[in-house]
Amino acid sequence: MPDGTLRTPDALIGAGLLTEADRDAATRVAARYAVAVPPAFAALIEDADDPIGRQVLPHADELVTAAHELLDPVGDAAHSPLPGVVHRYPDRVLITPLLVCPLYCRFCFRRERVGPGSGALSGAELDAAVAYVRARPAIREVILTGGDPLMLSPRRLGRLLRALAELPHVELLRVHSRVPVADPGRVSAALAEAMALDQTPVWLVLHANHAREFSPDAANSLRRLQRAGVSLLGQSVLLRGVNDSVAALEALFRAMLRARVKPYYLHQLDPAPGTARFHVPLAEGQALLAGLRGRVTGLAWPTYVLDIPGGFGKVPVGPIYLDGDGVRDPSGKSHALAGPPASL
Ligand SMILES: *Cc1c(COP(=O)(O)O)cnc(C)c1O
Ligand code: SF4
Question: How many CA atoms lie within 13 A of 97 on its CB side?
């Protein structure tokens, strides 16, 4: 694909993002996991181990699978009734129309499956996925994810969104994407138009992990989607060396808000193979979020969630302010809570 995206150790060394000393490990990593860095994202990298480079540049540690790591950490397979469909909760369903991404995160929870050669659903499989939703009136929301649905052509994305929006019980459409920050030039007028539906709310949940991802071009691409009537939420993964400080999280969530993106979820890292170098313990994550409370606008506060390994669902994991019969304030001081008498 002659779009300037860096996809091989050679290309990354040529661009000055890796050195000859990295070649051997990078070659072995690239043989196992997809690699891609679009030029706009490469331009944000100052050195290989900075918060942007760490997310996308192959690293020797990826070749080591830790004992707790799982091939399918969130249990997609156990909840997949047909290709490209994951149905775990009664009111909402995931459809993965393709497994291609604009870049490949080194910590990706679906890293065993995503990649440039990974199958897009065939026309018949996509029809079957839509038929699955049509046959289940309990489904109110369809979430397009992948891979990255904004890697579809505007025509195909628009056709899929409209086919789903036509189903009377589908009240919401959601699209999970990294494209607006990873490769903002892809957010063309035609793509924004494809996402503009009159009758059905469309939410785009942007995956971004560091304030520097919000370049002027990224902000413009988000503005274009928002002007088309798309509501914007943010999701981030808590990552060692990327956003594991109060200052980095504050900057990230403030950058989201300036781009009209409401922080929705901060994910605990899923234990996919070879991702241990990004792990931040839960207690540390709780302390980091607590560091924002009371000081930073509540709009900047995402829900910190853990997808229970093995496929048992996502749950909020704090920080928790209730403390026995009392409650802690943002500074950590406990206060008793008096309620009305039990006879009321
Ligand atoms: C994360 C996820 C969802 C969406 O969950 P929300 O809490 O509504 O954001 C839906 N289905 C599956 C299988 C998921 O993993
Ligand atoms: S954008 Fe999402 S699906 Fe794609 S590589 Fe990154 S984490 Fe994985």
Answer: 23
Q: Distance from the CA of 35 to the center of ligand 2, in angstroms?
A: 11
**C-alpha 194, offset from chain centre:** 21
- Give me the number of domains the chain comprises: 1
Show Cβ contacts of residue 234 under 8 Å, excluding neighbours closer than 6 positions: 205, 206, 207, 208, 253, 256, 261, 262, 263, 264, 302
Domain CATH number, residue 85: 3.20.20.70
Q: Whose CA is nearest to atom 8 of ligand 2?
A: 108
Sole residue written with tokens 């950590």: 332
User: Ligand 2: which of 143, 178, 183, 307 to mutate, most ligand atoms within 8 Å of CB?
Assistant: 178
Is 166 among the domain residues? yes
Mean pLDDT check: name the lowest of 150-154, 261-265, 277-281, 338-342: 338-342
Parent domain of 166: 67-314
Nearest CA to ligand 1 atom 8: 92
> Which pLDDT belongs to residue 344?
61
User: Does 143 reside within a domain?
Assistant: yes
Cα of 65 from ligand 2 centre, angstroms: 19
Name the phi and psi angles at 200, rounded to 5: -120, 125
In one-letter notation, the amino acid at residue 78 is: A
Ligand 2: residue whose CA is nearest its atom 6: 105
Question: What residues flank ligand 2, with Cβ below 6 Å?
Answer: 101, 104-105, 108, 110, 114, 146-148, 178, 207
- Domain-located, residue 262: yes
* pLDDT digit string, tens, across residues 216-237: 999 999 999 999 999 999 999 9
Average pLDDT taken over every residue of the chain: 96
Does the pLDDT of residue 1 top 60, yes or no? Answer: no
Q: Specify the pLDDT at position 117.
A: 82
Reported pTM: 0.97
Q: With respect to residue 116, please indicate whether it lies within any of the assigned structural domains.
A: yes
